[in-house]
Write a structure and sequence with these properties.
The chain is built from two helices and nine strands; from the N terminus they run αββββαβββββ. With 168 residues, it is α+β, with helices and mostly antiparallel strands. It has one domain: Phage tail protein-like (STM4215-like). Strands 1, 2, 3, 4, 5, 6, 7, 8 and 9 form a nine-stranded mixed sheet that branches. β8 and β9 form a beta hairpin. The longest helix has 16 residues. It is elongated, with a radius of gyration of 19 Å. The termini are close together.
Length: 168
C-alpha cells in the first residue's frame, strides 16, 4: 500500500468482515443492487500533525538493503464518510438504516482495523432522497494513524505507508 491510496478500501474490507455491507464510494468496480442497507466508505478529510523535528523520526536498519535508512513520518487524522443508504419500501428503508447503523457501531467500537485508532464517531438524521428513491443517513468516523516514509541515499522518499495497515 502506498500512502492513503487504498485506506478507504482497507476500511471497507474491515467493515465487511465485521458484518457490515460496505462498499467504497466512487469505486470503479460495478456495484450489485441490494435489498438492504449499504455503507458507502469515503475519505472526506485528512489532517497531518508533525511528530518530530521536520518530521524526522530517526534511523532504522533496513535488513533488505543491509544499511541504515532515515525514517520520516506524521500523525494524521482521517475523517471517513460511512454514509448508510437503503432503498425505499415497506420491508427496508429506515428500519434497514437503523439495523445497519447498529452493526456499524458495533464494528467500530470493537477496536477497528490495524493501524487506525478510532477517535470520534457521529451520526446524522436519516432522510429520504426523493430524486434517488432511497434513504440516507450520514455517518462519520475520525481515526488517528501514522503516515511514514523511508528516504533513500539521495534524500528522496521511497514510499509512504500508513503504519500498521496491511496491504490489500
Amino acid at each position: 500500500m502506498s500512502g492513503l491510496e487504498h485506506v478507504r478500501d482497507y476500511l471497507a474490507e474491515y467493515l465487511s468482515g465485521q458484518g457490515v455491507n460496505a462498499v467504497t464510494a466512487w469505486s470503479d468496480r460495478p456495484r450489485s443492487e441490494t435489498d438492504g442497507a449499504v455503507c458507502a466508505v469515503s475519505l472526506r478529510k485528512g489532517q497531518a500533525v508533525g511528530v518530530g523535528f521536520c518530521d524526522y523520526l530517526g534511523e532504522r536498519y533496513d535488513t533488505k538493503r543491509g544499511r541504515w535508512v532515515e525514517f520520516y513520518g506524521k500523525r494524521v487524522r482521517l475523517t471517513f464518510g460511512l454514509d448508510l443508504y437503503a432503498p425505499a419500501g415497506a420491508e427496508v428503508g429506515e428500519r434497514a438504516i437503523r439495523a445497519a447503523f447498529d452493526t456499524l457501531a458495533g464494528a467500530l467500537q470493537g477496536g477497528g482495523p490495524s493501524g487506525l485508532k478510532l477517535e470520534e464517531f457521529s451520526c446524522g438524521e436519516t432522510e429520504f432522497l426523493e430524486t434517488e428513491g432511497r434513504y440516507r443517513c450520514p455517518v462519520e468516523a475520525v481515526y488517528q494513524a501514522f503516515l511514514y516514509a523511508v528516504a533513500d541515499e539521495g534524500g528522496s522518499f521511497l514510499d509512504f505507508e500508513v503504519k500498521g495497515v496491511m496491504q490489500l
